[in-house]
TrEMBL record:
Top-level taxon: Bacteria
Official protein name in the record: Nonribosomal peptide synthetase MxaA
Keywords in alphabetical order: Signal
Secretion signal span: 1-21
Tagged with keyword Signal: yes
Length: 303
């Protein structure tokens, strides 16, 4: 006759294996990088690894939030989680950082409570439990020292950092900026390096740049204004067409350009005040530039 106890045990093991095989949670384990030598105020980590059927997602609401107390001596400080797909399985890794708020006078074994976790797929939730685990809490004060003999140490002084390197770096940066500013002032003729460029030479340089643009009426007007500004600066006042002869008498060095200047004033009056005019074909921007250079040369001879 067969043993009825053995038959019952066999059926129990069989159905238990079927239940495990049908569970979407294939395995769960917990470990800690360091579970000994912990003292009050230290942090310790618990690493939970859960293997589930693919498609199941961890319900983060089932995990305690950072700052929540686990019991009267543990508090969760940080929580990190990630997952990795492994064929038909998903491996979840959950890292919980705890901080200990308990002082002991001799080594003591404490327990981190079990942690329920929920996973969900297609609206169906399944719950599993990360098992509790232990760690050893070590006293800060030696066990052979009575409480009345304990001497509190003073606070450590702040570390000394020399600021000389920072000052050197700041001085180097300021020197570089000053040098760059001085070069820019020299390059663009700004104070204190402003160069006393004669008015006609300056107008010739600006006309050369303007000559690279299309020969439009607006550009010609701008070029004519450059020459007018140079003449006004040389005369010391706004030089009108009727005052040209008096200007040439006062500055005989420009009398060699009398015909060109008379033609310029005629064209300028037509370009600025006539309607629908176009730039003079025979007195282009290049000719204005040439006239400025001729006047600049006469200015130099006078100097």
């Amino acid at each position: 006759m067969k043993n009825p106890f053995g038959i019952a045990l066999g059926f129990a093991l069989f159905f238990h294996s079927l239940a495990e095989a049908s569970s979407p949670i294939h395995s769960i384990e917990i470990s800690s990088p360091r579970d000994y030598g912990i003292v009050m105020g230290d942090t310790l980590a618990g690493v939970i690894r859960v293997e589930t059927e693919t498609g199941y997602h961890l319900e983060t609401a089932s995990i305690p939030q950072p700052g929540s107390a686990v019991n009267d001596f543990l508090e969760i400080r940080e929580i990190h989680s990630d997952k990795q797909e492994l064929g038909n399985e998903t491996l979840y890794r959950i890292i919980l950082i705890y901080q200990v708020f308990k002082g002991v006078r001799e080594a003591e074994t404490l327990t981190v409570p079990a942690l329920p976790l929920r996973f969900e797929r297609n609206g169906q939730s399944v719950e599993t439990i990360a098992p509790a685990w232990n760690f050893t809490l070590t006293p800060i004060i030696p066990t052979n020292v009575p409480d009345e003999a304990v001497v509190l140490r003073g606070e450590l002084p702040p570390p000394y950092y020399s600021g000389i390197n920072h000052w050197r770096w700041l001085a180097a940066c300021l020197s570089g900026l000053c040098g760059l500013g001085a070069y820019a002032a020299w390059r663009f003729g700004l104070p204190p390096f402003r160069r006393n460029v004669p008015p006609f030479a300056r107008a010739a340089s600006d006309l050369k740049k303007l000559g690279k643009k299309p020969a439009t009426q607006e550009n010609y007007r701008q070029g004519a204004k450059l020459l007018h500004d140079a003449l006004n600066e040389a005369a010391g006042h706004t030089l009108l067409p009727g005052q040209l002869w008096r200007f040439l008498e006062a500055h005989p060095e420009y009398q060699g350009s009398t015909a060109d200047l008379e033609r310029f004033f005629m064209d300028s009056e037509r370009v600025f005040y006539a309607i629908g005019t176009v730039p003079p074909v025979d007195f282009s921007l290049s000719k204005l530039e040439g006239l400025c250079r001729k006047l600049a040369s006469a200015w130099g001879e006078k100097r």
